[in-house]
Amino acid sequence: MFVLLFALVLGTNFASVSASPSDSTQSVLQPDLRGFDVSRAQAGLNPRFWACAFEAGYEKVVIRAYQQACGSGGRVDPNFVPAYRAATGAGFTNIDAYMFPCVGDQPTGVPCKAPEDQVQELIDTINSNGMNIQRLWFDIEPTTGVCNAWQLGADANLQTARAWIDVLGTTARDWGIYANRGQWSGMFGNLGVDVASDLPLWAVQFDRVPGVSTVTRFFGGWTSAQAKQFWLDTSLPECGGSVDRDSFLS
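Request: output the structure for the sequence above.
Response:
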């Protein structure tokens, strides 16, 4: 009780984890990790961005590793390796990456590379650069305009998504799914469609309230989340930059 009251006074977000086998009658409370994700270079916005973020107490970062790049059928984000180097150079060790794949028919007329090829490009980049990536997140998010994603219709989208999930399962990597409840029905027909609920969920709930335990709107078979993106298209108050802000279970 004291720990909980103390946490409430400090405004700290806590997530429950299972008690140790030696004490099954109690639960241990651990704080969420303060984090952010990036999809563009930060040095031009603030040369000290990464050092500032680490010094400010941010504990986890997710870097975009692969992008639609529909003019070429998908590609490793050219900022991925430099951002990783900058983050580790500043002291970050808890680093994830996310994949925004090329999916579907593109206005450019260039076909998307096969899922196997896109995933292999990403894995090869991680391995050849000796990158210590904790988890990879697969971004299921519709787009229209310069590049299309998940615009194939509900049945074809579902078939495509499950094909991608099968490919992810061949990599011997830890994967999760980044998704937004507000977009799910539009892609797959209804909120209950289960694409990969056996994988951890990084939930988008844009309410500007940190804390994974504050995720309340579920979908796709998930009933809990591993991470929450709570503030999109913003900056770090202490360091500027261009980021989305997140909470992660520790």
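The mean pLDDT is 90.
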